[in-house]
Amino acid sequence: MAVHSYGLLVTILAVCQQCSSWMTQYDQHFTITCPAGKTFKSIESIQDNYYEDRVWNFNCDVPPNGVNFTSCTWSGYRNEFDKPLDFQCGNDGIITGVESVNDNYYEDRKWSFQCCTATGYVVHACEDTSFVNAYDQPLNYRVPDGKVLRGVHSVHDNYYDDRIYKFNICKLDPVDQTVHVVIG
């Protein structure tokens, strides 16, 4: 009996530890921002068919060149429930925060993004990833070294009540301040 109880306790602790390892909760509003001077480096998510929602982890790190952001603004919600999301930070901005609200009628989320810029730096050489997850499947994406996250594209499917995601990633480098003089 004691061995069975111990095994049950270990199982419960393992499940509870797994549940608490996510930064967000199912069906709940959340806002996640990176600490000052950092940007998203990896994004993880799993979907649960009972809740028809995802829980999320966002990990932050110092961006390439260790820039200091001088200005940050929030986009406001950029999609409607059950509609595509297509967002990119403008003005050489990169994503450093997310806010999301869930609606159980639509079984979907709206998304808002914090975009930050750094004086003297330019976002360039941007590219879109392919979709990084399938419906009802885990999402595990790491921004490649030397790149930053500038945008998110997502499509909702009512059959799965889930979204697939792809990301727009770019290089972030100092603006070339070299002045070329032509004498003639």
Descriptive notes:
By secondary structure, the protein is mainly β. The protein is built from 1 helix and 11 strands, in the order αβββββββββββ. The strands form 3 sheets. It has a 4-stranded antiparallel beta sheet with strand order 1-6-7-4, with no helix packed on it. A 4-stranded antiparallel beta sheet has the order 5-10-11-8, with no helix packed on it. Strand 2 (39-48) and strand 3 (53-61) form a beta hairpin. The longest helix is centred in the N-terminal third of the chain and has 18 residues, at 2-19. It is elongated and about 70 Å long. Mean pLDDT is 90; it is low at 5-18.
Alpha plus pi helix count: 1
Q: Which H/E pattern describes the elements?
A: HEEEEEEEEEEE
Task: Point out poorly predicted stretches.
Answer: 5-18
For the terminal residues, how far apart are their CA atoms? Answer: 95 Å
* Shape descriptor: elongated
Classify the secondary structure makeup into a structural class: mainly beta
Radius of gyration: 20 Å
Helix content: under 10%
Number of strands: 11
Largest sheet: 4 strands, antiparallel
- If you average the pLDDT, what whole number results? 90
Q: How do the strands line up in the largest sheet?
A: 1-6-7-4
Oligomer: single chain
Strand content: over 45%
Signal peptide: 1-21
Keywords: Disulfide bond, Secreted, Signal
Subcellular location: Secreted
InterPro entries: Dermatopontin
Considering the chains and any ligands shown, give keywords for the structure:
single chain; mainly beta; 4-stranded antiparallel beta sheet; 11 strands
Brief summary of the model shown:
This protein has 184 residues and is mainly beta.
